[in-house]
Amino acid sequence: MHSQADALKTSNDTGTLYQQMLASIVQSSEDAIASKTLDGIVTSWNPGAEKLFGYTSEEMIGKPITLIIPPDRLSEEPILLDRIRRGERVLPFDTVRLHKSGRLVDISLSLSPIRDLDGAIIGVSKIARDITIQKRLHYDLEQSESRLNIALEAAEMGAYVLNFKTSEATYTKRYLQILGFPENSRPTHKELLEQIYPEDLARRNAAIEEAKRTGSIDLEIRIIRRDGSLRWIRARGKVFADEEGVPEKMMGTILDVTEQKAAFEEVQASERRLTKLADAMPQLVWIAEPDGKVTYYNNRLSEYGSTSQEATDIWEWQPLVHPDDVDETLEAWYNAISTRQPYSKEHRMLMKDGSYRWHLSRGFPDKDAEGNILKWFGTATDIDDIKKIQQSLAESEERLRFTLDAAAMGNWSVDLATGRAITSERHREIMGYEETGNLTREKYLKYMLPEDKVQLDAQFEKGIKEGSYQFEGRVQRPGKPISWIKVQAKTIYNEQGQPTTVLGTIVDITDEKHAARAILESEERFRIIANTAPVMIWMSGNDRFADFFNTRWLNFTGRTLGEERNEGWQENVHPDDLEHCTTVYRESYVAQRPFTVEYRLRRIDGVYRWILDNAVPRYSHDGEFIGFVSACMDIDDEKKFNEKLQANELMFKTITNVSPVGLWMTDAEGTNNYINDTWLNWTGISLNESPVYGWMEPVMAEERDSIHQQFLASLALRQKYSAEFRFLHKDGQVRWGLAEGFPYYDDSGYFGGYAGSVTDITERKQTELLKNDFLAVASHELKTPLTSIKAYAQLLSQTYEKANDAFLKNGLMKMENQVNKMTKLVADFLNLSKLESEKFRLDLELFDINELVREIAIDIQMVAINHTILLERKRPVFVTADREKISQVVTNLLINAVKYSPEDKNINVSLKEADGWVTVSIADKGIGIKAGEHEKIFQRFYRSEFNNNISFSGFGIGLYISAEIIKRHNGKIGVISEEGKGADFYFQLPVVS
Ligand code: ADP
């Protein structure tokens, strides 16, 4: 009996409880729950229904349900009631009802019969759920999907989903098109795989295996299209795992990058060709930045003494220039740079053997359409031989100075009847005889060389007959070198016509003779040098070397000296260049100034070659201008090289400027040295002002620093670089960009810098935002049911606390745990979408962070019963911050510390105050974090992999949210950790003093 009564009591209690529960479910439900009689008269109406339809229960109870049925749906009601009468349940279906305000509401409606104790059907209970939001979401999702498709299409990308478990795959039309399949075909996965270029198949498979571990794939492979053509494809994707963490499927895009690759390779190839060409040049070739830093030399550099190479790629060439020439050279170079004019300078350069040789350095600015200098292309040509010739010429001119020193003349006469001679003092000096009186011809000619005397005598006799003579001969005075004399004589006749006297003059012409011979010799020497010089030489003027052309010149033109003389050479100059040539020559002649002129000269084979003509004025000993001497160089190769270089740059610029993505390059130090027009067009900036970092100006200030730091980090490791950022479009909109860069290496394997792209990913971001909205709404929707589940779970635990049913208790506890996890997850998702939406706001207040940390630590300690949270006692530290959000951060860090330290269970929480900052640190002794991941773990959805197969649940957003919150407080967050040795997470906020 006793036990029966108990049982009864229990069942009674249970019945009441059941009713209570039911009532409270009905009351607290978000769903509209109502009942009506079989005639359609409302008998109950919960708050959910009040909310959904706008009528209060007073207004509805006793009224026909048709009040909320729109006219065009009235026919539904009898059919539904019919089914209920037959005892059927009506499963949820979508329909429309009227709100009190007259507005239509989308609902999902389900009906079930209400029976009395005997089982007779006496009424209908209806549950209606508002599906307006779902409908909108559905619509949004469709929208976002089509937007995604448009974006994919615009980028000519194909998309795919590959299921690892079933090996099934789905593709967009574009995907098939890229692989060369007809649009409506339905190739199997296997058929698609067959399109892959056999050599690349293994790489592709390996990449997929790797993707299963790393979560993403990004590779370039070749495929053979249906039509047999070979294409390069860039395939990217993300792997999604199932609940157990097993990779389940991969989603991603493919893009045909053949053209990009080809263009890039073409540029590289043409650059290689140019380098070869440059190396083949007989000169030293160099390339410099607009500011004058030399960044390239061809391999001729090995023939010179050493330069110093700064940092990586910039050359200090000063050590190569003769110390006496450095200042002038630098001046000329800086002058050229500042005036943007071609540069030309002669200076001596240090050769490898330690000698100095004269060089002509020349540089040409390569300018863009607006006249900005992009690069300098230059050469240094060895002109040492020419210089030597010019010098030897100057020397020979010097010698001329000896000639015709104001000649002191001697006089003499011979009386033909008596043979008596009368001579002047100067005559005696010149001839060297000693006698003064009774002089005869024989006597004064005593030192004349005998062989010359014979000739002189003959001339003398001849002169008597003919009236005059001239003679040059040699005299050997005692103890003196042989000297030369020049005699001029005249015969005097009497009235009868008989010769009576011979009168004459005498001059010492030894010096003159020597000078003449010296000149002859020097002329000879000049000719030899000039003719063997490796350059073409011409000389003009009014002296004896007038219109000289050396052998090399004549060999070049294939003409004779006679043909070239006077203005003959003009016949070989290209008609288009002649006028310029002659003008420059004329003007320089008048001004007596050095000049350089470039013109095309016809070679013997009929080909016109560019010649650089470098002329300097010549002067006689008394300073008189006597024409020019010039050395000419064939600079045709150099010219062509420059043209090619410019054409190459142009091609490169054209290719990249039409590219739909921004392209950029850096040098080995990471300094930007190229950005194409696409980026400039997007942002409307010009790079004139600050070419190096100028391109970053449109990037949002708050992201500029961090993407630069990220780049430097990639640069240090020569790793792929990738960063997302916002920038200001010239139309005033803020848009999203994705910058990606890859290290590149030259032929010999030297790291050259980064080459990369900037893609406008605004559309993608917008779709992401839509997804976020979806997440927000979905999480919001999940929250309410979760809260009631939790409430019931707690209610049940309390109710059965004393019950002796281990299974039940355990089950309830597990249930509560799971609900807690889910609540946290939903909260995280909500936070995430809030963070990323415009709605994010900080509610700042002044509070004691020490107190906050303590409270949270105590809370968490209650749940983390196996861990010990050690908290130092500290005095209050006040901060102005969003208390709610900071507590989220502390909670996240503490939960992580517990979660990731399964073995050593001590967690130290500390607070430090210094320099106006408070640092909160939460240190565990758990598994720690790998060196490369200290920053990555703060990224959205980033989770590290754990090698020893332990798995930790989570989504990789906790730290991201924490970091965002701290960032928006202008604080800092970070971690100090070593793998296997625990992690010390900290964040810092400014303190209010
Ligand atoms: P979740 O924990 O949900 O994966 P979080 O954003 O909180 O996401 O953390 C991101 C990743 O950072 C984790 O997956 C884990 O690899 C690593 N991590 C976070 N806290 C710790 C910690 N205390 N010790 C070791 N690793 C941690």
Main sheet makeup:
5 strands, antiparallel
Tell me the fraction of residues in β-strands, as a range: 25-35%
**Can you give the mean pLDDT?**
81
Helix content: 25-40%
Shape: elongated
* Overall radius of gyration: 52 Å
Distance between the termini: 75 Å
Number of strands: 39
Category by helix and strand content: alpha+beta
Spatial order of the strands forming the largest sheet:
2-1-5-4-3
Bound molecules: adenosine-5'-diphosphate
Low-confidence stretches: 1-12, 397-407
So how many helices? 26
Which key terms come to mind for this protein?
alpha+beta; binds adenosine-5'-diphosphate; 993 residues; five-stranded antiparallel β-sheet; 26 helices; disordered N terminus
Describe, in short, the structure shown.
The chain is α+β, with helices and mostly antiparallel strands and 993 residues long.
Plain-language structure description:
- It is a single chain.
- The protein is α+β, with helices and mostly antiparallel strands.
- The strands form 9 sheets. Strands 2-1-5-4-3 form a 5-stranded antiparallel β-sheet. It has a 5-stranded antiparallel β-sheet with strand order 7-6-10-9-8, sandwiched between helices.
- Strand 13 (308-310) and strand 14 form a beta hairpin.
- The longest helix has 38 residues, at 762-799.
- Adenosine-5'-diphosphate binds at residues 892, 896-897, 900, 924, 926-929, 937, 942-944, 954-960, 983.
- Adenosine-5'-diphosphate is lined by residues 892, 896-897, 900, 924, 926-929, 937, 942-944, 954-960, 983.
Topology summary:
Elements: H1 2-28, E1 32-37, E2 42-45, H2 47-53, H3 57-60, H4 76-85, E3 90-98, E4 104-115, E5 121-130, H5 132-154, E6 157-163, E7 169-171, H6 173-179, H7 189-193, H8 198-214, E8 216-224, E9 230-241, E10 247-256, H9 258-280, E11 284-288, E12 294-297, E13 308-310, E14 314-316, H10 323-339, E15 343-350, E16 356-367, E17 373-382, H11 384-399, E18 409-415, E19 421-423, H12 425-431, H13 441-444, H14 450-466, E20 468-475, E21 483-493, E22 499-508, H15 510-532, E23 536-539, E24 548-549, H16 551-557, H17 561-564, H18 575-591, E25 595-602, E26 608-619, E27 625-634, H19 636-657, E28 662-666, E29 672-675, H20 677-683, H21 701-717, E30 721-728, E31 734-745, E32 751-760, H22 762-799, H23 806-836, E33 844-848, H24 849-863, E34 868-871, E35 878-882, H25 883-899, E36 906-914, E37 917-923, H26 958-968, E38 972-977, E39 983-990
Helix pairs in contact: 5-22, 9-19, 11-15, 22-23, 23-26, 24-25, 25-26
Bound molecules: adenosine-5'-diphosphate.
